[in-house]
Each structure stands twice: as structure tokens, then as C-alpha cells.
Amino acid sequence: MNPDLAWAVWCGERQRRIEDVLARVLPAADLAPIPLSQAMRYAVLEGGKRMRPLLAYAAGELTDAPADRVDSAAAAVELVHAYSLIHDDLPCMDDDSLRRGKPACHVAFGEAMALLAGDALQALAFGVLAEGRLAGAARACALLADAAGVRGMAGGQAVDLSSVGSTLSQLELEAMHRMKTGALIRASVRLGAACGRQLTGAEAAALDAYAGAAGLAFQVVDDVLDVEGSAASLGKTAGKDVAQGKPTFVTGLGLPAARKHAAALRVEARAALAPFGGAGRRLAELADWIVLRTR
Amino acid sequence: MNPDLAWAVWCGERQRRIEDVLARVLPAADLAPIPLSQAMRYAVLEGGKRMRPLLAYAAGELTDAPADRVDSAAAAVELVHAYSLIHDDLPCMDDDSLRRGKPACHVAFGEAMALLAGDALQALAFGVLAEGRLAGAARACALLADAAGVRGMAGGQAVDLSSVGSTLSQLELEAMHRMKTGALIRASVRLGAACGRQLTGAEAAALDAYAGAAGLAFQVVDDVLDVEGSAASLGKTAGKDVAQGKPTFVTGLGLPAARKHAAALRVEARAALAPFGGAGRRLAELADWIVLRTR
């Protein structure tokens, strides 16, 4: 099979796999209270690129973990991601009404139910991880908590809030994104890898360097697409960062330099995988996908 | 020492202890992003009765767990409780501006920062529990996730939302409160007990019956105090359930029957502790405290 086709098959298989896992761990659509169960399913299922689960599965392959041992980690990071999108879209935050090509959760279910759906999804993420087939589930929960909390995603979102209308240096902007999106992306890779054989210290550092570069590349491309893309292609409101006066890599660097930066980060991410040889293939392809994507 | 005095000393010691633990596990007030760290500390420290931590410590004494092994469980349940109060007070939920005798978190820090503070506190709760000195930390995380999620606290809050303006039978009302406040109270007792010797199945069931009755008693008394109390004594807005058209034990039963119901639940909670003899003393005193409290 040619490499592009093999990648597409791998990717599609894992995307279907995580969809099944998520559908199973989410509350049934008829579980009381029904509006909450439905809001949770609405916000998670049928949508999203599943980048974080793909990173977890790819990192699991690097450490020879069978996919069924990675399922809980892959689901947990996607549940945290989905909860963060619900809360980010609320009127008191980014006030966005379109997400993953459909009305945002609070538009469909009301603000209060959307808030609760996000809260319940975060709890579910930890529950799934704690009950997973992972050796060291407690350590995994601690890692996810750190990535989601004040030193990670929530902290990055707070910096983002405070930065509206101000200018950040590129270093400050990168620091913010390392928390806001980077922390959960790194956790996805680390949790997936933790499902298999133990890494040496040097290997763990290399993997972390990969995840840091890939995570930052993801954000740079996100900023480029926010300017270049349309709501139809993105499935979310385009141009909103600029409209909200948020500092982005495009406002900071300009469009051509932002594109170059993303390409350089792709090279950096791939280079970090060198110690792993062929075992890093899927992660390398994911770095390509992150940078070359159009949505 | 007479029993009342001994209880007051025990209670005061544990309240000071959990305050220290919480102050230590929360992000330092000068940790960036500072507004988020401060909002988290504001919502958790210097306030609250610390009923859930007290239940965890008392249940830990029942199983001979030293207090320092219970600390992480006690902190985790209080962090979940504090996050839920922040989110409940938001304008899109109960829209309340007074909490624990001071302006609600969103009044002090803005809605967006309050939302994030709640989110980060939930993550912190799981982090603290996962890193705690508890054998079976992963199982503890799974238990807390269940208590906080769609089958527990968040689910109960969703039922509560949907019930505004409608009438619930007493059974429906009790079912709602078993989720909304009862699940976390039961988790507090179970997590505290799990820090010590293993319980027999019969003992675990007895302890769960205690927690169920005590949790329901807490809610009935809350409804009574909402009618009888003042904002000054409660530290939160009085009369708000009635003002918001929420079904309560007082609207359902009337004030005298609600008081009687609380007294009966106190007897039920104490009776459930019979198998434990003297080891259940602190839990019995907590049931008294829950029913006889005036705030």
C-alpha cells in the first residue's frame, strides 16, 4: 500500500474506533436527566478531527501498546477537549454560536445545560481514565489534571482572556498557547505512550519535544486558517480572533511568516522523532496532517 | 472532657487542618495567571462549613486512618463542592451574588474568570486525589467522577434546572437531592473510609445508609434555613428557592413537617452507625450538627 493510502486507512480506522469508544462511555441518550445526557452526546459525537485521540493512538503504537489499552486515554483527552469547547463558546467567554459545523451546545441546549454538560464531561474524562486498562491510572489522572488545570488549559484560557486588546510578544504568545492547547496535546501523547512499554528518560524527552512542536504548529495553523478559511470549511466562525482583538501568530508575524513558522515546527516535530526510527511513523504523519490540514 | 466540648475541639481542629491543606494544594496567589489563581483561592478559602471534609475525616477515624492519609480525599471533595458553588451562582444558573458571606466569585472576578476558576478547581480535585497518599487512588478518582458527573451532582443540578416552576412529588424531590448534593456527601464518607482498613460488605452498606440519610437531612435543613434564615446568618441569599419557584421540602411538606423529616433522618443516620459502636461517634455527632445547625 502506498504510504498516503496507508495513513488514510490508519487514520480512518482510529477515528471510527474513538467514535465507538466515546459513544459507549457517554451516558445513553435516554439516561435521566435526558437533556444533560443529550447535550453531552451532542457536544462530543459526530464532529471534530479527533486529533488528540489520534495522537494518543499513534504514541501508543510507538510503545507497542495495543489500541484497546489506549482507548481510555484517547477518550479522556477528547472529553476534556470537548468540554473546553463548550465552555469557550459560552456568551461570557468567546460567545460563539457555531462549532463543528452545527449550533454551539448552548445555542442548542441553553446556557445552563451547556455549562453543566461541560462540567459533567470533565468529570467523565477522569472517570474513564481512572477505570481504564492503563497501568498507573492514578498517575495518568494526575497528568491529565495538570494539563487541564491552572498550569495548563484553564490557565492558558485565562491568559487568553486577559490578553484581548493587548499585544503579546511572540514568546508570550507561544507561552500562552503552550498552556491553552499545548498542555492537552502533550498529555495526549504522554498518556498514549504510557499505555505501552516504559520509555527511557531520553525517549520521553524526545517525545515531549515532538508534542511541544506539534502542539504549537497546530495553533499557528489554527490562526492561519482563522484568517484564510470560511465558516463552511472550518465548521466554526472564521475571522473571530481578529474580530475579538485577540493577538494571534498572524497578527504578530503576518501571514507569510506564520506559514513559514508552521512549516519549521513541522520539521522540528519530525526531527524530534529520530530516536524512534520507523516506530515514530504515525506521529510523523500526524505532524504533517496538523500542518497541511485545511480545517 | 464533656462530649460537647470534645466535639467542638475535634471539629475546630479538622476545620483548621483542611484550611491548611486547601491553602497548600491551591495555586499560590502569585502564580500566573494571577487572576485565575486568585479566583480559585477566593472561592475556596476562608469560608464554608467544611462539612464534606469533616465527613471524610470522621469516616477515616471509623476505619482507623490517620488524618494525614485522609487529607487528599477531604480536599478533593471540598474542591468539587467549591467549584459547583461558583458555577451554580453564575447568571445563567441561579444568578446569585452572595456566597459564604462575600460577593460571589463572578461578582468579584467576572463571569469568564469565575467559569474558568470552577473548571480549574474540578481538575485540581482529581489531581489532588490522584496524587494523594491513598491506596487505590485510581478507584478513588473513579468514585469521585461518578459522584460529580451525570449520575451525581451535575445530573442533579440538571434535574433541578428543569424542575423550576413545576411541582415534584416528595419522591422525585428526594431523588433529585440524592444526586445534586447527596452523591458528593456519600463520596466524602466513602473516600474518607477508604483511607483506612477495608470494610466488610455489611459495614460499607451501613456507612452508605448513614451517608444517604445525613445527606438528605442536610438538604431538608437547607430548605428550612432558606425560609427561616437571613442572608446575614446564612452568608448567602435567603429565600431564593421560593423566589425562583424551585420545589423544596418546605414547599412540598410545609415547615413543621420538613423539620420533623429532618429530625427523623437524623435518627435514621445515627441508627445506621450502630454496627460501628464507639468508632462511629464523630459521624453521629456530624449528623447532629447537620440537623441542628443554624447556617
Task: Describe the protein in words.
- The structure is a homodimer of 295-residue chains.
- Helices cover 72% and strands 1% of the residues of chain A.
- With 295 residues, the first copy, chain A, is an all-alpha fold.
- The first copy, chain A, has one domain: Orthogonal Bundle (Farnesyl Diphosphate Synthase), CATH 1.10.600.
- The longest helix of chain A is centred in the last third of the chain and has 28 residues, at 201-228.
- Chains A and B meet through helix 2, helix 4, helix 6, helix 7 and helix 8 of A and helix 2, helix 4, helix 6, helix 7 and helix 8 of B.
Please give the radius of gyration of chain A in angstroms.
18 Å
- Look at the structure and give the mean pLDDT of chain A: 94
CATH superfamily of chain A: Farnesyl Diphosphate Synthase
Number of helices of chain A: 15
Determine the CATH topology of chain A.
Farnesyl Diphosphate Synthase
By oligomeric state, this entry counts as: homodimer
Query: Order of strands side by side in the largest beta sheet of chain A?
Result: 1-2
Main sheet makeup of chain A: 2 strands, antiparallel
The secondary structure category of chain A is: mainly alpha
Net shape of chain A: globular
What's the CATH class label of chain A?
A: Mainly Alpha
Strand and helix map with partners:
Two copies of one chain form a homodimer.
Chain A: H1 3-25, H2 34-44, H3 51-62, H4 67-89, E1 98-99, E2 102-103, H5 105-109, H6 111-131, H7 137-148, H8 153-163, H9 170-193, H10 201-228, H11 231-234, H12 240-243, H13 249-253, H14 255-272, H15 281-292
Antiparallel strand pairs in A: 1-2
Helix pairs in contact in A: 1-4, 2-6, 3-4, 3-9, 3-15, 4-6, 4-9, 6-7, 7-9, 8-9, 9-10, 10-14, 10-15, 14-15
